[in-house]
Amino acid sequence: MKFYKLIGTAVLPFISLMGCAEEGSATGASVKAELTANAEQESSLSTELKGKGEILSIKKEPAGTIKASYFFSEPPTKEDLANKILEMMEEVEISDEFIQKISGRLIKNRSLRKDNFSLPLTDMDGTVYQFDFLSDAENSFFVINYSSK
Amino acid sequence: MQFLKGIAVTLLCIVSSSVLADECPVSTTPRALFSEFEQLASERFEPENGKYSATFKNGDSVTARFDLCGLGINASYLIEHDLEDLSKQISFFLMHAIPSKNSAETLASQVASHSEQDFRGGITLRGGNGNHWVQVKKSPSPLYSAVIHYRWIPPEH
């Protein structure tokens, strides 16, 4: 009897491991790698990490124009796209009045259903805010670009 | 009697572990890929949803997604400035993104034997822990010059 108990005790700890036989062996990679040649170059970007792996970068050009790009790694719904465009409009300091005005109708825009689109939004003064959406489904990489004209 | 109890407990363990195994037999452990890199400007690590992003002092940024139900990693590295030596940058990125230190060193050393044109078309590096897809593309954003995409394709079970 003692013999069976002994075997039982020895086997039990291993059984609990059976459900997860393989984990992504992903703890290493504290590998020190040399930085490449562009290390000394200064960035002209202001980059914000938005959570969920999303990145928003803004560039203010000397002439005063602003460009921005919003990157994400999952296919967006049209609601996601509308919300991200509105968020970008706030970040690049487009007037609240115009944002308010556009927010209701943006979601209804048919362009937002496409895999790639070019969406110019014109305000009351005739200023055009250009939003372009580009998809790379194979690499799971999506971007909305903004520029003003 | 105690022996029977032992068998019952054992069966219970097997059943419960196999039930769990049916849902997600394996998962990828999310990592903060560039935490120890001295050029890091900021990073955001969300292991609960398998997401990671980081930005560096030179303007480059990276985003990564870990498969929490299965094995897999998707990562993209955005390069702000044009590079003279693209293969060096690819090796650097792979060293941090590939999920095993040994494989990373072996695979990163293979990068130099491929031309920039190879990477533009996309290539699969074969390693001990599966395949590794690497592709360099012109950046879809005018703020960056190029983007390196990486995908770990683990061996099938």
What features would you describe in this structure?
- The complex is a heterodimer of chains A (149) and B (157).
- By secondary structure, chain A is an alpha+beta fold.
- Chain A has one domain.
- In chain A, 26% of the residues lie in helices and 29% in strands.
- In chain A, helix 2 runs antiparallel to helix 3.
- The longest helix of chain A has 14 residues.
- The radius of gyration of chain A is 25 Å and the shape is globular.
- About 17% of the residues of chain A have low confidence.
- With 157 residues, chain B is an alpha+beta fold.
- Chain B is 32% helix and 31% strand.
- Chain B has a seven-stranded antiparallel β-sheet.
- In chain B, helix 2 packs antiparallel against helix 3.
- The mean pLDDT of chain B is 88.
- The chains are: A alpha+beta (149), B alpha+beta (157).
- Chains A and B meet through helix 1, strand 1, strand 2, strand 3 and strand 6 of A and helix 1, strand 1, strand 2, strand 3 and strand 4 of B.
Give the helix/strand layout.
The complex is a heterodimer of chains A (149) and B (157).
Chain A: H1 2-15, E1 46-51, E2 54-60, E3 66-72, H2 78-91, H3 96-106, E4 117-122, E5 128-136, E6 141-148
Antiparallel strand pairs in A: 1-2, 2-3, 3-6, 4-5, 5-6
Chain B: H1 2-23, E1 40-46, E2 51-56, E3 61-66, E4 73-79, H2 86-97, H3 101-110, H4 116-121, E5 123-127, E6 130-138, E7 146-153
Antiparallel strand pairs in B: 1-2, 2-3, 3-4, 4-7, 5-6, 6-7
Helix pairs in contact in B: 2-3
Summarize the structure.
The complex is a heterodimer of chains A (149) and B (157). Chain A is α+β, with helices and mostly antiparallel strands and 149 residues long. Chain A has helices at 2-15, 78-91, 96-106; strands spanning 46-51, 54-60, 66-72, 117-122, 128-136, 141-148.
Oligomer: heterodimer
Strand content of chain A: 25-35%
State the low-pLDDT regions of chain B, or none.
none
- What is the count of helical runs of chain B? 4
Could you say which structural class the secondary elements and strand pairing of chain A correspond to? alpha+beta
